[in-house]
Amino acid sequence: MPLTINTNMAASRASYFLSKNNDALQKSLDRLSSGRKITQPSDDAGGLAVSMKMQGSIDNLRGAGNNISNALSFLQVQDGILDAAGQIVSRMAELQSLSTDVLKGTSDIDNYEAEFNDLRSQLYEMTKTTFNGVALFGDWQKDNTAAASTNNIFGTDDDEADVSLNVAVSADGSSSVNIHRSKLGSALTVNFDASVGDPNATPTPTTAALDIVAGDYEGLVLGSNNNGASDVGALDPSVATSFTAAAFSQALENIASLRATNGGQASRLQYAQESVATQISNMEAALGRILDVDIAAETTNLAKQQILVQASASMVAQANSANQVALMLLQ
């Protein structure tokens, strides 16, 4: 190689390697400081694209997990009310039994019946309970508002008519679990002689207005309408339409069936929630393998790059001093 002054090839090449090694050192510092293997798209364009899609799926699964938790809370509140309704019906059955005591006079029976009617009103109020504005129970059908009566207890909308709610349990929403608004009103619509009591059947009105006074329903929960009028059911055993013990047994059986359905749906949601949590955990592990830096390997690389940078800088200095030999020839 000729000895020149204007062009110092050794210094130029040493400077190139110094720049290259310094870039590698900076990249290693970026990775260790961020904890990420991919700090910019050029590091791994394909891996970055895959990681973004995986992160989107993880976020969607977290949303599904929140939906499942809310649905479980919905079912828990629903079951709490069903449990309370069962206790109320049990108390009503006790009152019915007490009213048959031959030692009780008319005033005693009237006292029992006053509590009995208060409990019926409370049962009716419980059927209208909502969870964050969503009806917990789905018995009532939409009224014919044109023919609606002032005695109509069902309101003027059909928000509660749809008894099914779909809960998304997958990242893309393609899989869902169906939960139900328990038909508490239907379960409690038991005539005084226990002739009606199907928890899965929506009551069929005889008139469009669903007028209690007209005798459309004669049941436990429907014992009073919004005007305070009562149906023909009574506790007084001397009345032909007095409630029998069988009516309360049927109502309790219906409520038990609703609670069993509620428990089954809650169990399914719990398994779905566990599945979602497992998917999130596995996908986060896969995402980490794409994005996260191996600290042990990268610290080793950092040490190597630091030595190379120092060596390159030293060689640049040596190369810059090499041309001084030309001065000796010129003397």
Task: Write a brief structural summary.
The chain has helices spanning 9-34, 45-99, 106-126, 184-188, 245-291, 295-322, 325-330; strands at residues 130-131, 134-135, 164-168, 176-180. It is mostly helical.
List the helices and strands and how they pair.
Blueprint: H1 9-34, H2 45-99, H3 106-126, E1 130-131, E2 134-135, E3 164-168, E4 176-180, H4 184-188, H5 245-291, H6 295-322, H7 325-330
Antiparallel strand pairs: 1-2, 3-4
Helix pairs in contact: 1-6, 2-3, 2-5
Strand content: under 5%
- Class inferred from helices and paired strands: mainly alpha
Number of helices: 7
Give the helix level as a range of percent: 55-70%
Low-confidence stretches: 141-160, 196-218, 221-232
Number of strands: 4
Query: What is the first-to-last residue Cα distance?
Result: 22 Å
